[in-house]
Specification:
The structure is a single chain. By secondary structure, this protein is an all-alpha fold. Among the domains are: about 95-225, Voltage-gated potassium channels. Chain C (Four Helix Bundle (Hemerythrin (Met), subunit A), Up-down Bundle); about 235-355; about 460-500. Helix content is about 70%, strand content about 0%. It is built from 22 helices and 4 strands. The chain has helices at about 25-35, 45-50, 50-60, 65-80, 95-100, 100-125, 135-160, 170-195, 205-210, 220-225, 225-235, 240-265, 270-275, 280-285, 290-300, 305-315, 320-375, 385-395, 395-405, 410-420, 430-440, 450-500, and strands spanning about 380-385, 420, 425, 430. Strand 2 and strand 3 (about 425) form a beta hairpin. The radius of gyration is 41 Å and the shape is flat.
Length: about 500
Amino acid sequence: MNMAPGREHDGVESTNVPLPMPNEELQALKQEYHNDGCKAGPEESQTRKSSLKKRMKTMFEFSNAEAIKEKVRNAKKVKRTYNVHDAYHDTGFFQMIARHPHFENSTLAVIVVNALWISIDTDGNTAPTMTTALPIFVVMDSLFFTYFSIEVIVRFLAFKRKCDCLKDGWFKFDMALVILYGFDPFTLAMVAKVQGGDGLNLPTAVLRLCRLARLSRLVRMLRSLPELMVMIKGMVAATSSVAYTLGLLIIITYVFAIALRNLVPKAEDQNCEELDEENGCLEDHFFSSVLETMHNLIIFATFCDELAALMHMVQKQSTACLILSWIYVALASLTVMNMLIGVLCEVISAVAAEESELMMVEKVHEKFGALVAQVDDNNDGTISWDEFKDILALPDCLAALESVNVKPESMIDVAEDVFFDEGEPLAVPFDDFMGLVLDLRGGQQATVENMMGLGKRFSQKFTNVNCRIEKMEGILKHVSDRMDQSDSKVDEILKYMKVF
């Protein structure tokens, strides 16, 4: 008979005795260890899945550390950017024309030419109505009106549901301008012709000012020139800062105006002609009242319009006013005005960063939204590991990643950590996947907050590993205790056999 492996009990033979721990119990312990991790409970898997978004924020949101970028992305997730093309027919002649870039570019070119022609018409067309105008002005107005009318009609026919045109702000804006164009000069000319006279008993000069409304079409260029929109938004955003700065300037000017009024030599107390034969008394010329003093300080000492003339006259008649005037120039012109320039530059930079991030978010959503739609077979709005591999296999994927300055190798390196949690596959929502693409762009800067989040992530990983090690130690201790029990039973069996 064979001895128990690795054991001899006083030279006595022993049979192979099975361990008293069944294999099913070992498997149950392993399963318990695998399911529990650090804590036992049926909700652990759901907790891991729900923590995906938080983990991705702490791991991959380096570019989101800035409040501007965070605001843009959150706004993008909450509300999808409006695009009038979504309301057009999917097929058809008019929708094809309305969607084509050449149609938009041609309209912008006509708008620019029309804006230039308005200046020529204003200077050269002196006729009260269109019936008495020169042929060149009649032809040009007819051409412009025809083109803008055709453009509005094409866009109207491109809508799938015609009532949706009333929801599009640009369409309503252009329609109103076309109606206004039809009123002046065409409607006024027809009324004048019916009356049989050369003019109307209406304030046509005022009505002709309505033509200035046509220049508002230039606003449409903002859609094609984002840089102009950045400047306009910067001006609007800087309104409050500029108002506070100008308020500070007015306060400083008011204080110095009162001080100069008290220090300026009185005209009746001195012979001004001897001091300054050309300009006369300083009080009468610049500082006659507080409001006049404030006005002159802003014009001459703040905007520096003929500052030398002011300072030379003050120098001749009052040394105290000269010192006070130079202090005012240092505060108002050199400090406050330059501070205003700095405020404007800061606001423009912030708006430019916001617009740049917005355009990048829209670009990523546009490019990858179409790619994800091709591989999302179940249409659940999430991306699995298999779907992610299908996306990378698409021909347009690499070009799309390069267009947003993302290296495909970087996405592959982090994909395992995103799409798997402790070996368990996870489905990533589309918005989180878009955030991952944005965060992997080259040139992103990590902040202290991002590094703290990364450290917290690694700390959590190490904590999970320690928990698993402790759990494994518990399993090994449990197995060791069972082994000791088995040894005890083997010893009893051997003693029993020895007796017989």
